Amino acid sequence: MITALDHVQLAAPPGSEERLRAYYVGVLGMTEIPEPAALAVRGGCWFQAGAVQLHLGIEDGFRPSRKAHPGLRVAGIQAYAVRLEAQGAPVTWDAHLPGHRRFYSEDPVGNRLEFLEPVAITGSGPGG
C-alpha cells in the first residue's frame, strides 16, 4: 500500500548546481537539504518546502522533458507568479484544470514545473 509521495527526482546537467540553488532557494523559497554522503559525491542538490522534496540529480547528456513535471501546490498563486516573473522566470497561465488556478514555469536548466492553487467552485445550486 502506498501511503505518501516521498520526493520527486528531476535531472540537471553537470555543473548546474549553483544555478539550481539560486533558483530553488532564491526564487522559489525552498530550503536546500543535505544529501546523504554516499549520494552527494554524484553531484546534484536536494530541496524542501514543508513536506515537499525535490531532488535534482546530475545526468550526463541531460535534456529537459517538455511534458513531464511535478505539480507544486502553492498559496497565493497570483503573488507567487509575480515573484517568479520578477526574478526572470517564465510564467504561462493555463485555465484547463477545473477548480484550480495554475501556471507553468521552468527552472534554469529547462525542467517544466506546474504551480497550482485550488479555488472554490461557485455554482447555481440551491440558495446560490
Sequence-ordered SSE layout with sheet pairings:
Elements: E1 8-12, H1 17-27, E2 31-33, H2 37-40, E3 45-49, E4 52-58, E5 71-73, H3 77-86, E6 92-94, E7 100-106, E8 112-118
Parallel strand pairs: 1-4, 5-8
Antiparallel strand pairs: 2-3, 3-4, 6-7, 7-8
Q: Could you explain the architecture of this structure?
A:
The protein is of the alpha/beta class. The chain has a single domain (8-118), classed as 2,3-Dihydroxybiphenyl 1,2-Dioxygenase, domain 1, CATH 3.10.180.10. 20% of the residues lie in helices and 31% in strands. It has 3 helices and 8 strands, in the order βαβαβββαβββ. It has helices spanning 17-27, 37-40, 77-86; strands spanning 8-12, 31-33, 45-49, 52-58, 71-73, 92-94, 100-106, 112-118. A 4-stranded mixed β-sheet has the order 1-4-3-2, covered by helices on one side. Strand 6 (92-94) and strand 7 form a beta hairpin. The longest helix is centred in the N-terminal third of the chain and has 11 residues, at 17-27.
